[in-house]
Design a protein that fits this description.
homodimer; Alpha/beta knot; 189 residues; alpha/beta; two-stranded antiparallel ribbon
Chain lengths: 189, 189
């Protein structure tokens, strides 16, 4: 099982569809690291080109992995130890390719249905067969069109029985990891 | 489909298993409201006995449902409109029973396997058949033993392929709503 997650702070879009860089937030680091660790993610890449934001993310992670936080809460230390801060998608793709020994299948996520959609069951099965996968999640209003196009495919939007699907990226990442990697009880296997 | 969610701030346990009251946090309100709205939850009950905490939760919700926030972001207004702040589990159970016209099936959630465990597929099927369900989520280190016992059953802990399962309550609630109410593509139906 070779699955990495990347949280993109640039390039993402704002509510008007313009490309922006968003700010790193504390709970995006914690919640996605905790879900990642639970579901067996190898590396949780946090992508921001801004030096101050990289430093901030590094300080938060360091507090829990090397500082006081980890001594009080070792589980949190274990979760945040999977975080690596990087400056661009290109850098993450190169590092993940080197780590896996081959280019991973890059899957973007989006709240709107896209053309190159791959089904969850198919990806789940490919992961079980050993295909390395890199999942891209966007902050703000989502990944920029260039990242959606750069990916090998896009996962279907998460839907319930309503027309509403404005999940936080923390919720979306958690649900997608569960769909792809969660244990199922017999009737759901 | 009749499903409510309750987020409990008292009685919950701390890391030593002692019963405490926890603080309301902004993103617990937002993330679980957004997931709730996406998956068709009727009411998202926020339980705290502390007057100041009830006021804080009410102010946050009011900012988005009646104040400036909602005019800028109507989707967030729509999500937070499902929140109702209450002072105790007993109050929520009475209000939910009145709303549904019958006592709902109360399901607790816990990161550790419990005796009275019900499977996700079974609950999913009962929800589809019209059974009203109230899902209880605990903040801090989880629901107190008395709430676990008061429930009609406990959902299985969320597991991935690791021994680690320290999810945030935001992640756990999102994943459980998706397991019980999410649309599945054909192969997963």
């Amino acid at each position: 099982m070779k699955v990495d997650v990347a949280l993109v702070h640039y390039p993402v879009i704002n509510r008007n569809g313009e490309t922006i860089g968003s700010a790193v937030t504390n709970l995006d680091l914690h919640d996605i690291a905790r879900a990642g660790k639970t579901y067996g993610v190898g590396t949780y890449w946090v992508i921001t080109p801004f030096k101050e934001q990289q430093d901030l993310a590094g300080q938060i992670v360091g507090h829990w992995t090397q500082g006081y936080g980890g001594s009080v809460n070792p589980d949190r230390s274990s979760a945040l130890s999977i975080v690596t801060v990087c400056s661009s998608y290109a850098e993450v793709l190169a590092a993940a390719t080197k780590k896996f020994g081959t280019k991973p299948l890059v899957l973007a996520t989006c709240a709107k249905e896209q053309v190159a959609t791959l089904r969850y069951a198919e990806i789940r099965s490919r992961i079980q067969q050993g295909t390395p996968v890199l999942l891209l999640f966007g902050t703000a209003w989502g990944l920029s069109p260039e990242l959606l196009e750069a990916a090998d495919g896009v996962l279907p939007p998460l839907c319930g029985p309503t027309e509403f699907n404005h999940l936080s990226v923390r919720s979306a990442a958690s649900i997608i990891l569960d769909r792809l990697l969660g244990e199922r009880d017999e009737k759901e296997a």
